[in-house]
Write a structure and sequence with these properties.
Elements lengths: L3 E2 L3 H8 L5 E6 L4 H16 L4 E6 L4 H6 L7 E6 L2 E7 L3 H9 L2
Parallel strand pairs: 1-3, 2-3
Antiparallel strand pairs: 2-4, 4-5
Helix pairs in contact: 2-4
Length: 103
């Protein structure tokens, strides 16, 4: 399943309150480490069709990043029915695979 970009707080809230597990990648265009994790995140999105994968540019949707306390990039957060159930900060590929597997 392709990765969808989150564009607003309302969009974010509607997505995380659905019935399917959701993982959001918090990133920024200027973040080189974020770009290095993107291919793996995209690969995981195609391998896990039961989950929904989203990307949020913290420069474009700053209010969501601030509300969730995202201070370092990349950051990944997992939500189920509106509740955050997992997260990862940093560019640890094996931890990202584990995070997705445990969704």
């Amino acid at each position: 399943m392709p990765i969808t970009y989150l564009t607003s707080l309302a969009h974010f809230e509607s997505v995380i309150n659905g019935n399917r597990p959701v993982i959001v990648e918090f990133w920024a265009e200027w973040c080189g480490v974020c770009r290095s994790m993107s291919p793996l995140f995209e690969q995981l999105s195609t391998q896990n069709p039961a989950a929904q994968f989203y990307r949020l540019d913290i420069e474009d949707v700053r209010d969501v990043a601030l509300a969730l306390g995202v201070r370092n990039l990349p950051a990944f957060k997992v939500f189920k029915k509106g509740v955050q159930v997992g997260d990862l900060v940093g560019a640890d590929q094996s931890q990202l695979v584990r995070l997705v597997k445990n969704m």
